[in-house]
Amino acid sequence: MIARDRVSKLTANLILLGIGVLFVLPLLGGVGYEVPVSLSAALLSQLAGLAIVALWAMIGTAIAALIVSMVIPMRVGAQEEADGLDASQHGQQGWDFR
Description:
Elements: H1 2-22, H2 39-71, H3 78-83, H4 85-90
């Protein structure tokens, strides 16, 4: 369900981006682009910016996760998982199935 929401949001954003870029064209009443810039150049610069930001976010997240994993363990042991994370992590019983 979450993946479907993300895909639909991405699709909507891409559609709005495409429509928004078209409104700049003088044919549709926009102000147009400056002389050396074209529609394809504008879209390519947008895609380049998107790729750079995505890489920056991935690298930053990986570095942050590495630093956190050096300070505290990122995973619990097999026995703690079998006992239940509620009981092993903060001493509470989430569900009582007895």
